[in-house]
């Protein structure tokens, strides 16, 4: 009897159990929704704090919001330097809007004076930030409506190679003009695509059109160093501090000084940029203009190495800038005076300079940033040795030919530049030049960029082959340059 009653009760109450399960599911869903809403509200609140502190330039107070797990990956100094550089580039943070929540936290659309970014944070215990990151907004590679003009005659295999590599680049929406040279034993082939500005229909002129070459300047700085070594005025292993004011403590770690060689091959241990470069009023479109020699010396007075120089490769604009300053001190001339006297005049590079004359300004290509907007020319301040030079295609051809030549006034200095001074699993360096030595296809190269320009120089001494590309847009040309160089190497090897 009890069994029947129990069975009947269970049978009669089955809908009640289903209803109970449904209610529990609804409550669980509501709990998840509430939890997600809670995460979103906490993230929104912390994002506002980050934005406000960002606009105040308070990197340390933002770093103080991070969790211990984040700090284990990122030091306070690197965080502050990176955020300062980003702030100088992007300007004031105007607003942010929710984009999406995902398993890595919450993403926002972040609007800055100088563009748009994706801002991502992940909130941990006690509202600490486990993750904080800015990333570029990916854009589809939009193509121009019409075919961009060029002067490629399309007559032989080299012409077709250039067209194959360059056409996809120049058809991108935010590119403008390109000047390209292929240097061989048989002579020089020049190609121009696009225009000197988006309002102009003029192809870049190999002789007259000027571009900012950015970090390819470092090869010039290294050549000046090599010439100074060959002259006997310095030794490549001289301590840097020997050529700086006595008020600056010894640059080095314990008994290991930073040498001239370390500055030229990026093993000095110096950061990419000095921590004090983006303090004060900074124009994000011309971020180095305000940084003068007194600011550089002030930074070096308090800089402390954390490991012995020469141990690791770490690319440093600061190091190249200091090298330029050292050379000024050694010769008692400005960096530009050294450039003109020791490189440009001997090589007849009449259109390579730092300070622009009226005719230079007239012939200068207009540079465009990643968003296709025109950019001002950069003033590198005290870091001229890292990226201040402006040049034309023909002048850069002459510079590259000097690197290929076994004779001439700069041959000894060029050979010194091309000797390996540092080698690891991931990097091989000469002085100023990066070295790629894969499978008997060795070549030297360097790429550069400023706010609205990109550049590439690469050469193979054994095959007497050189490639130069100059562009007046902030779309990288180094991949195209290396592709052309390697394909030419293979053609010449067959």
From TrEMBL:
<dbReference type="InterPro" id="IPR012338">
    <property type="entry name" value="Beta-lactam/transpept-like"/>
</dbReference>
<dbReference type="InterPro" id="IPR001466">
    <property type="entry name" value="Beta-lactam-related"/>
</dbReference>
<dbReference type="Pfam" id="PF00144">
    <property type="entry name" value="Beta-lactamase"/>
</dbReference>
<feature type="domain" description="Beta-lactamase-related">
    <location>
        <begin position="162"/>
        <end position="478"/>
    </location>
</feature>
<protein>
    <submittedName>
        <fullName>Beta-lactamase</fullName>
    </submittedName>
</protein>
<dbReference type="InterPro" id="IPR050491">
    <property type="entry name" value="AmpC-like"/>
</dbReference>
